Amino acid sequence: MFELTGQTALVTGGAKGIGKGIAQTLARAGARVVIADIDVEQGEATARELNGHFVRCDVTSQADCRAAVAEAVRQGGTLEILCSNTGIFPQARLDDMTEADWDQVQNINLKGMFLMVQAALEPMRAQRYGRIVITSSITGPITGFPGWSHYGASKAGQLGFMRSAALEVANQGITINAVMPGNILTEGLADQGETYLNQMRAAIPTHTLGEPEDIGHAACFLASPEARFITGQQIIVDGGQILPESPEAIE
């Protein structure tokens, strides 16, 4: 089950955090992993660790996205898997949010996903096989948090894109699905401070934060041949965070 030997996987934002967790899981399943990231030093280190390959990519650039896909195909001969994971989540409340703040989040999180998916579809269509997995979030589609309205909008937008895009390629052997993480203990989340982390732990029924590889396991399933009859869907990986009706429900 979930055997990916001989397949090539391109993971954007794969240098660290959730992206690295996804890349590690795909590599253990046998995939040739190509890390695409704007962070050259960390991206190269992760690629070496996974015996993979690194390509620098700014996902807001259509040329960079196409070049990253071309490099993945050059490395593996084919491209079976795209995990579109690049994302940022700077905090900005509405009264302080600038147009530039809004545009930056939408450009990286939403436009960047679109450009990567569009680029990956060309080789996938040619071979009539592909697995595309988008890293969305529970924030936006289901929950909200003060300071992340621009982030939430981008993550909800990803799911709207996914459903229509999945229909366009459903009869071409290509699936498009999403993983929706809750609070995962990444470098970025740790930067929010221990007070925030403790608040999040208290709000999760397991009273723990997820690990990047928890998202990797879900992505690996959606990227596998066994998931052939699943498209336009999302898997929530959040330790049950969205379940309680009140704090008393998880005391």
From TrEMBL:
UniProtKB keywords: Oxidoreductase
One Pfam family cited in the UniProt record for this chain: adh_short_C2
Xref: NCBIfam families: PRK05653.2-2 (NF004202), PRK07231.1 (NF005559), PRK12826.1-4 (NF009468)
Family (UniProt): Belongs to the short-chain dehydrogenases/reductases (SDR) family.
Full protein name: 3-oxoacyl-ACP reductase FabG
Source organism of the structure: Marinobacterium maritimum
Gene designation: fabG_5
